[in-house]
């Protein structure tokens, strides 16, 4: 059985340090460090890359929050101040990727920098960052799955259970499933695909998108708090699109690079 110790890591008077914030900051720091190293390995000046990455992180945070809020307007329209309470969770990775690409990629394009190469450098950082960040859901006791009796079941206190599962104690730890999948995606990107698609800028990023989407599709199917558009789970729909784009576009990019 798995049980969260709670959201608060440290309390010093009025200062509250939450695990969610610690994990998000750690994921960002590690991602920037990995991007810096990969830029050097590729012979790319890391300084403008880091500037674009910082903007991408800002755009990612804003995009992730706005995306989540947009699909929960009934709740946030009643309590507008909660829109800014990101420490309570509520960041959608698809919105984060969109926001990060728009702001960070837009800056790189405006400066005439190699946008597609920057996206390739960012791909492994995104995967490992998500693997770390998912543990924030564990500490916040959120983003869990349906009830289960599996040995690795996750205990959720009554106050955090959906009404329809109020009598259930244990749930699928979907945060763990996705964290392990994201770690695997990181390893596969770095060990298998990074060198193989190096001559096709943008291909590694799309490979990340496709691989991540496969895992997200299945974990999303277990979630009890999925963002919905009518009867459709939004993350599953986006994941299907991500897989199709990767399957169709990546081979074309690789073949084109080999023919050049």
Give an overview of the whole structure.
The protein is mostly helical. It has one domain (2-196). The chain is 63% helix and 7% strand. It is built from nine helices and seven strands. The strands form three sheets. A three-stranded mixed sheet has the order 1-4-5, with no helix packed on it. α1 packs antiparallel against α2 (46-70), α4 runs antiparallel to α5 and α5 (115-133) packs antiparallel against α7. The longest helix is centred in the C-terminal third of the chain and has 26 residues, at 234-259. The mean pLDDT is 94.
CA radius of gyration is 19 Å
Tell me the series of helices and strands, N- to C-terminal.
Answer: EEEHHHHHHEEHHEEH
Mean pLDDT: 94
The total count of helices amounts to 9
Structural class: mainly alpha
Strand content: 5-15%
Please give the order of strands in the largest beta sheet: 1-4-5
Distance between the termini: 55 Å
Give the helix proportion (percent range).
55-70%
How many strand units?
A: 7
Let me know the largest β-sheet. 3 strands, mixed
Q: List segments where confidence is low: pLDDT < 50 over at least 5 consecutive residues.
A: none
**C-alpha geometry:** globular
- Total discrete domains: 1
Topology (elements, then pairings):
Blueprint: E1 2-3, E2 8-12, E3 15-18, H1 19-42, H2 46-70, H3 73-78, H4 93-110, H5 115-133, H6 135-140, E4 154-155, E5 170-171, H7 174-193, H8 203-222, E6 228-229, E7 232-233, H9 234-259
Helix pairs in contact: 1-2, 1-5, 2-4, 4-5, 5-7, 5-8, 7-8, 8-9
Question: How would you concisely characterize the structure shown here?
Answer:
By secondary structure, the chain is mostly helical.
